[in-house]
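Title: Prediction job returns without error message
Component: structure pipeline
Severity: low
Priority: P3
Assignee: unassigned

Description:
Job completed but the reporter wants confirmation the result is attached to the right record. Sequence as submitted:
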Amino acid sequence: MTSLLQTTTLVVGCFAAFWSTAAAFAPSKPSSTLFVPLHAVTLDVDAYKPYKGEQPKEASSEIFIPQILPDDVDENLLWVPQTDTVSFRPLCFCVSSGYYVNLLRVKGSGLLSRHRHPGPVHGHVLKGRWRYLEHDWEAEEGSYIFEPPGEIHTLVVPEGVDEMITMFHVTGSLLYCDPEGKVIGAEDVFTKLELAKKHYKNVGLGEDFVQQFVR
């Protein structure tokens, strides 16, 4: 009986210690500091005060592009051609982490060569539609796509699509493959960066125009 009482006392004590510790680490204001409505600003003036301290000295500056598809700029200046019908518009060349973010544009129907990504890829369709030969779904305007590392696929823009534009976030390389999966070509953030440099130099914007996208 004494042993059972001692065991029960020990268990209760452990639970009490656990909840006491958990309570100590729980946020005191789980929701009130997360979002402050505008009408409540008079109740919490500090919430709308900007941070006055220094940002980390080693941190890169942000990239802000007001309009990724501006109407007042000649599109031939911003889009970097890869073929007669395929081009990209750079948004970020992250050379420090090995990824890039760009808009991929395909004019008219056609096929982008079979390829594999060793790293993850995220996509968001802004215009038109496309599909992969290896899947039964079709991405259209508004669609989001996650491509897992290692998958091999072939992008096709179907008949009836005049222009397709998709924003892609690509980590690592894009490896072009033959039907058996053998690598026959490659591109990455550095090859894309070099293409952009040459294009902007050729159209008169200057090679350094691309530096605004490099981090």
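Comment from assignee: result matches the submitted record. The two ends are 69 Å apart (CA to CA).
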